[in-house]
Design brief:
Its EC number is 1.1.1.1. By secondary structure, the protein is an alpha/beta fold. It has ten helices and 15 strands. It folds into two domains: 149 residues, Medium-chain alcohol dehydrogenases, catalytic domain (Quinone Oxidoreductase, Chain A, domain 1), CATH 3.90.180; 127 residues, NAD(P)-binding Rossmann-like Domain (Rossmann fold), CATH 3.40.50. Strand 11, helix 7 and strand 12 form a beta-alpha-beta unit.
Length: 317
C-alpha cells in the first residue's frame, strides 16, 4: 500500500459521508493486499470495519442525522431483484459489491456508505472496540448460526483471532462448551481467560468429540483434523473468504457418519442487525491493538505474522 492524499469524497444522493474514527484490520484486507483476493478496482482503499461520524447526507437520505455514530461493513450493495435477494439471501447476490474491494473503505479519514447499508451501533463500546464487531463479529455470528450447534453443544473454534474470540463469547453466553485450536500461545491464554473449556494446538485432538466446528484460520490443511474431531452428525463451517487448498479427504475418517461441511459467503444485513443487537445485550470483551492510521502497513504485517492477539484497529487522529 501507498499513502496518498485524495479529495474528501462527496456522497451520492443515497449515501452518507462519514468521518472515520476507527477501522478494524481484517484478514480479508491482508488477502487483498497480498493478492490472494485480486482487487476489484486498482487503487482501492481497504477497510470494511468502519466506525464513523456522519458529516454529510446525500439529497435522498432520510432517517440519519449529522453527528450520528454509524458503522460501515463489508457488504456495500446488492441488486435487490435477483432470486437470492428476493429470498432473503442477499449475501449470495451475484451483483453484490463490497467496501474496501469494489469501493473505497475505511483506511482513510473519510468514507462514504449507502444509507441502506449503514449500521446503527450499540452503546457502551468505544469506537476502537466497536470496529471489529462490524466484520469479525458479524461473520462469526453467521458462521455460528450455520453451525446449528445444539443447546449446550460442544463447539470447536479453529483460529482464535478477531472473529474467533468474539464468536467464542457469543457461544459461551448461549451455554455452549467451547474448545479452541490455535498455534498461538497468547491466543490460547486469551481463550482460557474468556472461559473456554479447553485450548490446544491448531491440529490437536479435542478432549471429546465436537457437535460443530468453525474454521476461521485460512488454512486448508486444518480441514481434515477438524472433520476428524467432529462427532457423527457434526457440522464444520468454513468461515473465511479465502482458504488454502484442502488436502485429500478419506471418506471413512472424515465424512462418514453424516458429517457436513458448509461455507460462509459474506453476510446479510439482517445478520449484522441481529449481531449488533446481541452485542448491546451481551457485553463482549473485545481485545484490540490500536495503530495510527498511517501505520496500516505495520498492522497488516503484524497480522500476517500472528503478532496480533484479538483484533488490530486503525485510529484516526
Amino acid at each position: 500500500m501507498v499513502l496518498e492524499h485524495r479529495p474528501v469524497p462527496a456522497p451520492a444522493d443515497d449515501e452518507l459521508l462519514v468521518r472515520v474514527r476507527a477501522c478494524g484490520v481484517c484478514r480479508t484486507d491482508l488477502h487483498v493486499a497480498e493478492g490472494d483476493l485480486p482487487v476489484h478496482r486498482p487503487g482501492v482503499v481497504p477497510g470494511h470495519e468502519v466506525v464513523g461520524e456522519v458529516v454529510a447526507l446525500g439529497a435522498a437520505v432520510t432517517g440519519f442525522s449529522l453527528g450520528e455514530r454509524v458503522g460501515v461493513a463489508w457488504l456495500r450493495g446488492t441488486c435487490g431483484e435477483c432470486r437470492y435477494c428476493l429470498a432473503g439471501r442477499e449475501n449470495l447476490c451475484p451483483y453484490s459489491v463490497y467496501t474496501g474491494w469494489d469501493e473505497d473503505g475505511g483506511y482513510a479519514e473519510f468514507a462514504t456508505v449507502p444509507a441502506d447499508f449503514a449500521y446503527r451501533l450499540p452503546e457502551g463500546y468505544p469506537d476502537e472496540k466497536l470496529a471489529p464487531l462490524l466484520c469479525a463479529g458479524i461473520i462469526g455470528y453467521r458462521a455460528l448460526r450455520r453451525a446449528e450447534l445444539p443447546d449446550g453443544g460442544r463447539l470447536g473454534i479453529y483460529g482464535f483471532g478477531a472473529s474467533g474470540h468474539l464468536t467464542a463469547q457469543v457461544a459461551l453466553a448461549a451455554g455452549a462448551h467451547v474448545s479452541v485450536f490455535t498455534r498461538s500461545p497468547h491466543a490460547r491464554e486469551l481463550a482460557l481467560d474468556l472461559g473456554v473449556a479447553w485450548a490446544g494446538g491448531a491440529a490437536d485432538r479435542p478432549p471429546e468429540p465436537l457437535d460443530a466446528a468453525i474454521l476461521f484460520a485460512p488454512a486448508g490443511e486444518l480441514v481434515p483434523p477438524a472433520l476428524e474431531a467432529l462427532d457423527w452428525g457434526g457440522v464444520l463451517v468454513l468461515a473465511g473468504i479465502h482458504l488454502t487448498d484442502v488436502p485429500p479427504l478419506n471418506y471413512q475418517r472424515h465424512l462418514y457418519g453424516e458429517r457436513t461441511v458448509r461455507s460462509v459467503t459474506a453476510n446479510t444485513r439482517a445478520d449484522g442487525a441481529e449481531f449488533l443487537g446481541l452485542a448491546a445485550r451481551v457485553p463482549l470483551r473485545v481485545r484490540t491493538t490500536a495503530y495510527d492510521l498511517g501505520a496500516a502497513d505495520h498492522a497488516l504485517a503484524d497480522l500476517a505474522e500472528d503478532r496480533v492477539t484479538g483484533a488490530a484497529v486503525l485510529l484516526s487522529a
